[in-house]
Amino acid sequence: MSHSKALISLGVGAAALAGTLAIGHGEAQAATTGVTTYTEGSTTVWQSPSFYNSKPARYLAPGQKVTIQSSQTINGTTWYQVGTNEWVPSTYMKVADDAAAAQTAAQPAAATDQGNVKVNYQDGATTVWTSPTSNKVSSYLGTGQVVPYTESVKQTNLTWYHVASGWVPSAYVSPVGDQAPQTQTNTQTTSQQAPTAANLQVQNVQASTNTTARSNQNAGQSATVKVSFYDPAVLGSSMGYGGVAANLAKYPKGTRLKIVLADGTTLHRTVNDTGTFVYSNPNQIDLAWPNASIPSYGVTTATITVE
Fold first, then answer.
1. Are 283 and 246 in contact (CB under 8 A)?
2. Which residue has the higher pLDDT, 90 or 177?
3. 36 with 43: CB under 8 angstroms?
4. How far apart are CA 301 and CA 262, in angstroms?
5. CB contact burial 21-57 (16+ within 10 A = b; e otherwise)
6. Which residues form the signal peptide (predicted)?
7. Which of 197, 214, 231 is the last residue of a domain?
8. Taking 60 as the threshold, does the pLDDT of residue 194 lie above it?
9. Helices (H), ranges, the chain
């Protein structure tokens, strides 16, 4: 199962929004509306206005509106209080004057076009998602399959195409002009249609073989990567906390990794998941970790070695 994030926004902001909100610490003011601006995953709400001595309280969706009760500026970053023991840094939130623009920015820019796309992904079935920002699988497409799309949107660095069963990203498909969609009436192209249970089984065997080959080829290779943390249970997953999400094109599912964090902590994890973070940062990994014990620094680096 892929988590898309649901990527936890744990990065430290560079500067506060200047002059956007005049609410002093502890000062009673009329309620002000804030809206989250981070579009690549959930925004973390912290229990206190600090990245280093606080724990996550809950998460906000992209473009979600909340009531700002007060604010504090600490070490150059403005923090907005959105509830009892609930704080969000201005890096990921705008206030009322900019709320409409932020809400618009949080949505993909739609384009009025249509045509056909062809699946380019060779290592198995390509996932069709319920929307460009969801974590829910709608269906699957087979390698080489051509399907029509009715619109496309820009999301991060990708174009997403709206096909009959959902949305697919340009990382795995490409436009093919006016070529007619393939149908199952052509027995020579049946294997390229939306996978049946039998086709998926064949594709899974092929993908497993490719995974083993790539894992053996990458054995012993090391790299320094960005590391973040996520709680699978928050996403409704029963995977547990022994895995790691990664770019499956670099580290296929089943790849065993030795992970040495910047603080010296050494972990041995097996890749069992991925996320939309790989579209913008293909060298990042995301460690499964209980929310209650996620390190206070939130984001770090690590040296990873394929075992």
1. no
2. 90
3. yes
4. 6
5. bebeeeeeeeebebbbbbbbbbbbbbebbbbeebebb
6. 1-30
7. 214
8. no
9. 96-105, 197-218, 277-280
Collapsing DSSP to helix, strand or coil, 247 comes out as coil
DSSP helix/strand/coil, 143: coil
Here the CATH number for the domain that contains residue 45 is 2.30.30
The model's pTM = 0.35
Kindly give, in sequence order, each residue whose CB lies less than 8 Å from that of residue 188, ignoring residues fewer than 6 positions away: none
Give the mean pLDDT of 104-121. 69
The span from the CA of 24 to the CA of 69, in Å, is 10
Residues facing residue 127 across a β-bridge: 140
Residue 201 CB neighbours (<10 A)? 11
> 147 lies in which domain range?
110-214
Q: Looking at the structure, do residues 117 and 136 belong to the same domain, yes or no?
A: yes
Summarised one tens digit per residue, pLDDT across range 19-76 is 333 344 443 344 688 888 888 778 889 899 887 778 888 988 888 889 999 989 887 7
Cα–Cα nearest to 110, from 164, 173, 38, 159: 159
Q: Give the Cβ contact number of residue 110 at 10 Å.
A: 11
Task: Give the residue-averaged pLDDT of 197-203.
Answer: 48
pLDDT tier for residue 227 given thresholds of 50, 70 and 90? very high
Under a CB-based contact definition with an 8 Å cutoff, are residues 281 and 275 in contact? no
Domain end point (choices 57, 92, 107): 107
pLDDT score recorded for residue 251: 87
Q: Is 112 helix (H, G, I), strand (E, B) or coil?
A: coil
Number of domains into which the chain is organized: 3
* CATH code, 248: 2.40.40.10
Among residues 260, 246, 243, which one has the least CA distance to residue 218?
246
List of residues 6+ apart from 201 with CB closer than 8 A? none
Q: What is the pLDDT of residue 97?
A: 56
The number of CA neighbours under 13 Å toward the Cβ of 144 is 9
**Do residue 52 and residue 89 come from a single domain?**
yes
